[in-house]
Amino acid sequence: MQKIAIIGTTSWGITLSILLSGKGAKVRLWARTQREANKIRKKGSERLPDVVIPKEITITHQIDEALDGASAVILPVPSDTMRQNISRIANHLTRSTIIISASKGLELGSNKRMSEVIAEEINPRFHVNICALSGPQLSREIIHNLPAAAVVASEDRSTANKAQRILTCPTFCVFTHTDIIGVELGGSLKNILALGAGIADGLGYGDNAKSAFMTRGLTEITALGMALGANPLTFSGLAGLGDMITTCASPLSRNHYVGVELAKGRSLEEILHTMNQVAEGVNTTLAAHDLAQQLGLEMPITEKIYQVLYENYDTKQAAEELMGGNVKHELSGRRWRLFSLFRQQKRTTSKSS
Question: Per-residue pLDDT tens for 188-207?
Answer without folding.
Answer: 999 999 999 999 999 999 99
